[in-house]
Write a sequence for this structure.
């Protein structure tokens, strides 16, 4: 309680452990979580956030985490608290709402830069579809890192550079390619070629689900991409 706890304090605590365990094939995983606090007074930190797991807004603390995974170890190396200091009135509902000065995507990019400045050894950055933006992909590849990320089914892709130049894009869920293979393509807005895979899996209730993944490392195959993302 003496001061605000930040990623800098966290890194000081975990640095020695990370240095003992880190290796070049480590991965950096980003995701956010909400610690619900239904009965706590609202503030810029304790406020309303949309929870994708349950499909509604909840009041609590929204935390963006950077987790380093190597071997059998998972170590938190960075975090940001999502604060919403800006209050405004919603035009339709006339309710007073809050918003952040920076987005979670911007926070993630700053956290990646911090990890690079800390000389953290990692090869891939793993993230779900919430963080699979063109800006994030451009940012990661510009720093000579790779990504494996989930895509929404309506993401647009071109299957050749000619199609990309002529803006002939199709939805990723309309691509016709065999299972357990990867296909090379170009995401709309992202200039570099990527690999796309479709992973079919069975849910706990017996229903079938499909996960679309994108990878920036063109030397990977289906098994490497799905195995890497499974570490998330």
């Amino acid at each position: 309680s003496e001061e605000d706890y930040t990623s800098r304090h966290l890194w000081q605590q975990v640095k020695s452990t990370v240095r003992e365990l880190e290796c070049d094939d480590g991965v950096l995983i980003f995701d956010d979580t909400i610690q619900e606090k239904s009965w706590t007074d609202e503030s810029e930190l304790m406020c309303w956030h949309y929870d994708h797991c349950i499909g509604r807004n909840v009041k609590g603390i929204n935390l963006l985490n950077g987790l380093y995974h190597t071997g059998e170890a998972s170590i938190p190396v960075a975090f940001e608290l999502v604060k919403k200091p800006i209050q405004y009135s919603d035009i339709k509902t006339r309710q007073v709402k809050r918003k952040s000065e920076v987005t979670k995507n911007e926070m993630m990019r700053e956290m990646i830069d911090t990890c690079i400045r800390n000389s953290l050894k990692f090869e891939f950055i793993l993230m779900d579809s919430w963080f699979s933006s063109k800006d994030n992909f451009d940012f990661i590849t510009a720093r000579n890192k790779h990504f494996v990320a989930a895509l929404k089914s309506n993401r647009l892709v071109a299957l050749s550079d000619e199609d990309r130049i002529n803006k002939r894009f199709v939805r990723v869920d309309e691509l016709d390619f065999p299972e357990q293979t990867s296909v090379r393509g170009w995401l709309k807005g992202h200039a570099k070629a990527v690999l796309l895979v479709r992973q079919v899996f069975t849910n706990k209730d017996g229903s079938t689900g499909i996960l679309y993944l994108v990878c920036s490392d063109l030397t990977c195959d289906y098994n490497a991409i799905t195995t890497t993302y499974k570490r998330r």
Observations:
- The mean pLDDT is 93.
- Helices lie at 7-21, 104-117, 134-142, 161-165, 222-230.
